[in-house]
Amino acid sequence: MKKIMVTGALGQIGSELTGKLRGLYGTDQVLATDIRVPESGPALDGPFEQLDVTDGKRMHELAKSFGADTIIHMAALLSATAEKNPLFAWNLNMGGLVNALETARELDLQFFTPSSIGAFGPSTPKKNTPQDTIQRPTTMYGVNKVSGELLCDYYFEKFGVDTRGVRFPGLISYVTPPGGGTTDYAVDIYYKAIEEGKYASFIAEGTYMDMMYMPDALQAIVDLMEADPSKLTHRNAFNVTAMSVEPSDFEKAIRTHIPDFQLNYDVDPVRQAIAESWPDSIDPSAAIAEWGFQAKYDLDKMTADMLEKLREKLGK
Ligand code: AKB
Q1: How far are the Cα atoms of 61, 231, 233, 234, 280 from residue 68, in angstroms, in the given order?
Q2: Closest CA to 306 of 256, 231, 272
Q3: Which terminal residue of the chain has fewer beta carbons within 10 Å of its beta carbon, N or C?
């Protein structure tokens, strides 16, 4: 990875990934693109172009004129938003992905895109979900993610595009809030703990999902992209996770720093149903074996860092 184009660079992952890649490979080596145009902020510290990922011609032109050797395709709608407007989600998530894969094929670029725990469904084994298993998701987001995993495999097998990817769990970060995800409660809870000392979770007590702190997610992308291709059996859609947690686990962890913190529940049936269709915990052993994946943050370490950084950010 030397000249990298990032789509969705203002999103939850893209905004931090762009900064990390610029730190590693040089500011001018990373072209940030997004459908939105920021007035200020880190995306503008280096090259930035507006890009609607459904416009394949412009995507190709931007990658070509930048001289990219890698495309990291992050632009996508998350699970809860996709469920509200499934056809739009299909067009954006799949249309954007096909355009990015075609750009990679035409210009011979290395390629990364994330899949998700949302690629699993109710008939998938729920605990320690294997790398290779039943994938019959019941959400549009999940349908997009499984289709995307297969499409990335296809572009590798058929055209030799160096496609790589992981199945991300819920990602937790103090920098850019997520939007429209089922796991977003795990970010909201930290903001509300500091701002109000209490939080009403839209996910019910006892609902386990995998989560990961953003620094580990960013490192996973870099490590997978730099991995020796001869060691990769799976290439796309590696299970990665740092913890399997439910809302009251966050409550306990936050209370060690904010003893009066109160957690209540105001369950959203739509997001609860999505969460229940996903695994409780996934098995990352293929990622560990094939490219040395490891997460540095567990729940307690992440909570301490989140609260410290959020207090600085919110001035509390
Ligand atoms: C979502 O909740 O939609 C995402 C995901 C797990 O892919 N955070």
Answers
A1: 10, 25, 26, 25, 38
A2: 256
A3: C
Q: Which fold has domain 171-211+243-314?
A: UDP-galactose 4-epimerase; domain 1 (3.90.25)
What CATH code is assigned to 4-169+212-239?
3.40.50.720
Confirm or reject: Cβ of 281 under 6 Å from ligand 1. no
- Residue 179 has a pLDDT of 86
Residue located nearest, by CA, to atom 1 of ligand 1: 181
Distance of alpha carbon 188 from the chain centroid: 16
Q: What is the pTM of this model?
A: 0.97
Q: Is the CB of 19 under 6 A from ligand 1?
A: no
pLDDT tens track for 157-178? 999 999 999 999 999 999 998 8
Dihedral-angle region of residue 127 (phi above 0 means left; psi in -120 to 50 means alpha; beta otherwise):
beta
Domain boundaries, the chain: 4-169+212-239, 171-211+243-314
